[in-house]
């Protein structure tokens, strides 16, 4: 039965299911932190560092020798400096939070043994914050874990189109050439090296040291046996002896393949038996095709096949093959590759031996031959034993390796070109720029370094626990098939089967399960309780997917007595992807917790077991989009994971030691332990990456005793130390005048008035003052042609004051840019030519509030060249950032959702008095459509509503953990008690009679009413609503741009055109395709005539038609516009005043050799007054740069 259990500081929850988990959920961001510390090994002394991460990289690249080996650069150790800025400062000044990595390098003269040692700067390496993120150029970023194919050997069977089954083995190293061994029925075994030509596989064995054919056969444990020619038919086998005819001519060669002709000849000689090798026929055929009798011949033969156009000498061949397979810098199976190879082939080769060995090849030969046996299983590449996680450390290592190899190449060149190497220093030889470039590329633009999702704390946790199959060395969206995206049985307890995006990335981007961790090789492991002879021991073991295939694992909720003995004789267990019923003595392990199957986000959904998986997927994804509210509230019906996810998200403040709270205010909490006082600073109203607010508020009082790790301040989306993404509201499932048709939501005005769903959003606007060719830009209050009313909120520098209310179009920062000759309009040029007056040559380029935005200025940040020389880009003198905050109340058009994938848009906000109300007069807050339940198949929302009703009326908070939540009978029992105590009208299934707020009449049918946890999502109508009358046009097509960000128009597409055609609305259609789109002259004329109040002129030719004609002419096609009377039209737009001109006439007909007429050139002062007036009225003018000559006609 349920019992009350403390969940955070002073809060208890009525918890169903097993009272306490046997094991705490592991730290939610340890994957990131562990991988980062693996890379740097900060805590280890330089000489005690293991061969991993940065240490391994530097030892791999050094020593660097010059071409004759007389000098070498050797690596001694590396050290990490302290960061030069604080995390907060990096954020404020848009810097990368990093620290210098110094390497001690020795330049050694190998002849005289002289050495010079010095410390060189390797680069600024970004630091991971304690939350598992990086600050790059002032923004928080996350490096996502990559789930990629592991190195090692993989056996597979593929069916060809011909129906033949081909057996193959791929050897995938960490770096180096891929090998693929292929065996087709009736053919020899071949090997492909890096997908080049097929080569007999035995040739490779000889290259690896097998002495001729006999050596190969010995290595493959082939024996010589005698076969009867007639009865045992040795055709296709290798002869182990040479047989000659009486004249001494060879009938059968030793190690030759026997054919039917041989059998006939031997029968005529009277031979009945022959000695043969019992090798696989595919090996026999391969030996028959490869004629090498020793290693040198094998090297030359292989070289000929791989490099057919180069001279095949033994030295060339040896050098080439050595670099291909025997040079650790070119070929490396890697630690994981060697581990998988040993495990798969049953070998016991040392982990340090990371090159391919002869034993590996022999194991692969046998493995491929074994695949011919249909009972032998091939490998499944989607099995988590064959896929591993590459975390930050390893991804960073692979990226820096590229930079280090470029650095090595440059160093070698310098060592070769510098005459006096003895007098040189290591600094002069090593160029660290490639390292900086590779770091910049990885963190700044790498596919796996992502802009952190900071919508709310849950989004942050999930982003750091994300697994992606995409990225360098992974899959691509286009190539990934169904299998790679599907849920695999090995995902159980390792990867969440629910949480994945909808859309092109489905199944490729996933999330770590709650208890999953990584082992030393990067394979996902999950905890299990050990069972011995049906008795559950207290021991917990972590198993990888490969380990789990060999054992029987029972469910977490298997019934066990107080001594740990499994109660049932037979148990349901999982074994290799099947559910099997086995005696309890055969059970090896039990799961740790029912929620270990799912991710954190999914584990927050109560009654998950009653929801359809598709809706649960939407539910877990939408919780990450919930906006932090100004007064968040923990859910009445939770799952018990709320406290842990808030704590691990990093959004709350935890006490660093035990002690007593000595001082509390809104920005800091002081805790005294003995004589020491620890100050905990709180973050106030910081803008997140998504424009939501990051804000902390204390939850302890002066004099409170606190323990280390206890939450002392809530984050922006937590309450009482528990995750709080939304609010508990009273909901009713009933139709209401059609306002909740199709997932729409009807709200009570109470939620608006009492700020239930109000949230603060902060937008950042930035402007730079740069140096231009014509002089520097200036931030100033003195802006040309701007009235005083527009400047009222600006200070004397031209920057808006903090606290000002601003709306669309208001100036935030005044800025003027010098205006060159080229920026002037023809009219201005003419006036200057005539009157010689010099206007103030600047134009207004101020920062204005964009269309549709509004709010209050809350902060201003300025950076100038003087105080931050190093941080501003070249050519920038000053940067001003203005932060504008707005309080957004819930409004019609906002998207809301529950935790079960039940989403909808607010359709109407009703006065409280019109809302349906309960018999005791309580009005409901929200009316949802009951049809959303059967169509979504997410009954969890109904159970949550009923359980919420019970909890609300009893003043409880409830936890129903996933897969072990409250049972139906338990809910019925609680309802019956509530019915007898408070609501006699309440039915056994949680329904009650509601009354219409408008009339006071009861509704005809009873309604399910209760308390549901609802979230406001970041898809807010304020960010989406958009309208355009005039705005920017695309340069080439001259059509309006698209999208809100470009202040674009609505696309009138093909289907919309059909709609107008269907109505026969010819004039509207013509307008849509011409003057409202890209008929340049037509739209100008239309605007002009509307202003003048005249009738509209007929539309002209769309610009896109001209573009089409030009495209065709560009292809060399002679396009002409012909008329029925035989005349040819040119596509020149004529500026014609005729009102009734048809579009056809707007194409100017011209004789082929027409010349534009040109006025004679006169000095500006020679032009008469009348002539000037005429020219200005004509508009068709061009002025040369000196403003002297005036030309009419074709420019």
What features would you describe in this structure?
There is one protein chain. Strands 24, 25, 26, 27, 28, 29 and 30 form a seven-stranded mixed beta sheet that branches. Among the domains are: 30-148 and 389-474, Rna Polymerase Beta Subunit, Chain: C,domain 2 (Alpha-Beta Complex), CATH 3.90.1100.10; 151-222 and 279-384, Dna-directed Rna Polymerase Ii 140kd Polypeptide, Chain: B, domain 3 (Alpha-Beta Complex), CATH 3.90.1110.10; 721-756 and 892-1013, DNA-directed RNA polymerase, subunit 2, domain 6 (Dna-directed Rna Polymerase Ii 140kd Polypeptide, Chain: B, Domain 6), CATH 2.40.270.10; 763-887, RNA polymerase II, Rpb2 subunit, wall domain (OB fold (Dihydrolipoamide Acetyltransferase, E2P)), CATH 2.40.50.150; 1026-1119, RNA polymerase alpha subunit dimerisation domain (DCoH-like). With 1195 residues, it is an alpha+beta fold. Helix 1 runs parallel beside helix 12 and helix 15 (457-464) crosses helix 20 (642-649). The termini are far apart. The chain has 32 helices and 65 strands. Mean pLDDT is 87; it is low at 1134-1167 and 1174-1195. The longest helix has 26 residues, at 392-417.
């Amino acid at each position: 039965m349920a019992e009350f259990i403390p969940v955070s500081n002073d809060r208890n929850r009525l918890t169903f299911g097993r009272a306490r988990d046997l094991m705490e959920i592991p730290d939610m961001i340890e994957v990131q932190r562990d991988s980062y510390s693996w890379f740097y090994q900060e805590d280890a002394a330089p000489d005690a560092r293991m061969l991993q991460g940065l240490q391994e990289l530097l030892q791999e690249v050094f020593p660097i020798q010059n071409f004759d080996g007389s000098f070498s650069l050797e690596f001694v150790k590396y050290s990490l400096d302290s960061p030069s800025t604080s995390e907060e400062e990096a954020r404020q000044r848009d810097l990368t939070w990093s620290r210098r990595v110094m390497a001690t390098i020795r330049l050694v003269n190998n002849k005289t043994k002289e050495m010079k040692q010095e410390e060189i700067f390797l680069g600024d390496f970004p630091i991971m914050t304690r939350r598992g993120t990086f600050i790059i150029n002032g923004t928080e970023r996350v490096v996502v874990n990559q789930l990629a194919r592991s190195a090692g050997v993989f056996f597979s069977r593929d069916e060809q189109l011909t129906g033949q089954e081909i057996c193959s083995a791929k050897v995938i190293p960490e770096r180096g050439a891929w090998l693929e061994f292929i065996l087709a029925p009736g053919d020899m075994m071949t090997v492909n090296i890096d997908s080049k030509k097929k080569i007999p596989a035995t040739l490779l064995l000889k290259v690896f040291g097998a002495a001729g054919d006999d050596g190969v056969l010995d290595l493959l444990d082939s024996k010589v046996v005698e076969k009867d020619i007639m009865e045992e038919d040795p055709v296709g086998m290798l002869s182990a002896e040479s047989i000659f005819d009486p004249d001494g001519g060879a009938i059968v060669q030793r190690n030759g393949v026997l054919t039917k002709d041989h059998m006939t000849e031997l029968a005529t000689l009277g031979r009945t038996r022959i000695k043969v090798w019992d090798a696989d026929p595919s090996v026999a055929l391969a030996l028959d095709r490869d004629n090498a009798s020793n290693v040198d011949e094998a090297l030359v033969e292989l070289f000929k096949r791989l490099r057919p156009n180069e001279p095949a000498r033994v030295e060339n061949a040896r050098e080439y093959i050595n670099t291909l397979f025997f040079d650790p810098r070119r070929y490396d199976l890697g630690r994981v590759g060697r581990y998988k190879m040993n495990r798969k082939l049953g070998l016991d080769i040392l982990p340090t031996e990371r090159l391919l060995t002869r034993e590996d090849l022999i194991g692969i030969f046998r493995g491929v031959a074994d695949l011919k046996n249909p009972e032998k299983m091939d490998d499944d590449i989607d099995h988590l034993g064959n896929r591993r996680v590459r975390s930050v450390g390893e991804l960073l290592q692979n990226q820096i390796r590229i930079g280090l190899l470029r650095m090595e190449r440059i160093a070698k060149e310098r060592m070769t070109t510098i005459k006096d190497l003895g007098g040189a220093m290591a600094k002069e030889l090593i160029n660290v720029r490639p390292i900086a470039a590779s770091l910049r590329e990885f963190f700044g633009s790498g596919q796996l370094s992502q802009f952190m999702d900071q919508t709310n704390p849950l989004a942050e946790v999930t982003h750091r626990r994300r697994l992606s199959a995409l990225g360098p060395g992974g899959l691509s969206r286009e190539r990934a098939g169904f299998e790679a995206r599907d849920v695999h049985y090995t995902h159980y307890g390792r990867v969440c089967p629910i949480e994945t995006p909808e859309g092109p990335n489905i199944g490729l981007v996933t999330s770590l399960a709650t208890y999953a961790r990584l082992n030393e090789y990067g394979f996902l492991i999950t905890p299990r309780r050990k069972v011995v002879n049906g008795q559950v021991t207290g021991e917990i073991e972590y198993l990888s997917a490969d380990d789990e295939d060999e054992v029987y694992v029972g469910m977490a909720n298997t019934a066990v007595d107080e001594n740990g003995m499994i109660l049932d004789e037979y148990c349901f267990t999982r074994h290799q992807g099947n559910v099997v019923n086995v005696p309890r003595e055969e059970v090896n392990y039990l799961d740790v917790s029912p929620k270990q199957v799912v991710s954190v986000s999914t584990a927050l959904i109560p009654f998950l077991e009653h929801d359809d998986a598709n809706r649960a997927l939407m539910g877990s994804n939408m919780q990450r989009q919930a906006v932090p509210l100004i007064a968040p509230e923990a859910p009445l019906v939770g799952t018990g994971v709320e406290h842990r996810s808030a704590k691990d998200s990093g959004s709350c403040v935890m006490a660093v030691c035990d002690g007593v709270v000595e001082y509390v205010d809104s920005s800091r909490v002081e805790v005294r332990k003995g004589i020491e006082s620890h100050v905990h600073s709180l973050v106030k109203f910081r803008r997140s990456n998504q424009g939501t607010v990051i804000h902390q508020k204390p939850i302890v009082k002066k004099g409170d005793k606190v323990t280390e790790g206890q939450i002392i301040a809530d984050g922006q989306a937590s309450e009482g130390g528990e995750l709080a993404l939304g609010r508990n509201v009273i909901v009713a499932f009933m139709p209401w005048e059609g306002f909740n048709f199709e997932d729409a939501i009807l709200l009570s005005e109470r939620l608006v008035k009492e700020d239930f769903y109000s949230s603060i959003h902060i937008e950042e606007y930035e402007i730079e003052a740069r140096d231009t060719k014509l002089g520097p830009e200036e931030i100033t209050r003195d802006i040309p042609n701007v009235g005083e009313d527009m400047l009222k909120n600006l200070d004397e520098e031209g920057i808006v004051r903090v606290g000002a209310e601003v709306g669309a179009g208001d100036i935030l920062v005044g800025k003027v840019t010098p205006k060159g000759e080229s920026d002037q309009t023809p009219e201005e040029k003419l006036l200057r030519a005539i009157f010689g007056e010099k206007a103030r040559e600047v134009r207004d380029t101020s920062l204005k509030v964009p269309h549709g935005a509004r709010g209050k200025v809350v902060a201003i940040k300025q950076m100038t060249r003087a105080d931050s020389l190093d941080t501003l880009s070249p050519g920038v003198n000053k940067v001003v950032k203005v932060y504008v905050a707005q309080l957004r109340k819930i409004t019609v058009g906002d998207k809301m959702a529950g935790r079960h994938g039940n989403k909808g848009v607010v359709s109407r906000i009703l006065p409280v008095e019109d809302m349906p109300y309960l018999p005791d007069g309580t009005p409901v807050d929200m009316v949802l459509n009951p049809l959303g339940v059967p169509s979504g198949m997410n009954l969890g929302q109904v159970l949550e509503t009923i359980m919420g009703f019970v909890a609300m009326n009893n003043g409880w908070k409830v936890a129903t953990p996933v897969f072990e939540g409250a049972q139906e009978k338990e809910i019925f029992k609680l309802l019956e008690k509530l019915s007898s105590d408070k609501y006699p009208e309440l039915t056994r299934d949680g329904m009650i009679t509601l009354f219409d707020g408008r009339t006071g009449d009861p509704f005809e049918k009873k309604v399910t009413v209760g308390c549901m946890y609802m979230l406001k999502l970041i898809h807010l109508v304020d960010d989406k609503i958009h309208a355009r009358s005039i705005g920017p046009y695309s340069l080439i097509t001259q059509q309006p741009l698209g999208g809100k960000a470009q202040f674009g128009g609505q696309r009138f597409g093909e289907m919309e055109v059909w709609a107008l055609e269907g109505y026969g609305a010819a004039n509207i259609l013509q307008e849509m395709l011409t003057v409202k789109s890209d008929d340049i002259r037509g739209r100008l004329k239309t605007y002009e005539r509307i202003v003048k109040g005249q009738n509209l002129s007929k539309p002209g030719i769309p610009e896109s038609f001209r573009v089409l004609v030009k495209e065709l002419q560009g292809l060399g096609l002679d396009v002409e516009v012909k008329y029925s009377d035989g005349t040819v039209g040119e596509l020149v737009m004529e500026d014609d005043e005729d009102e009734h001109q048809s579009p056809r006439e707007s194409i100017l007909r011209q004789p082929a050799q027409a010349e534009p007429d040109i006025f004679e050139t006169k000095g500006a002062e020679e032009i008469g007054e009348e002539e000037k007036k005429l020219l200005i009225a004509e508009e068709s003018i061009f002025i040369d740069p000196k403003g002297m000559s005036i030309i009419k006609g074709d420019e």
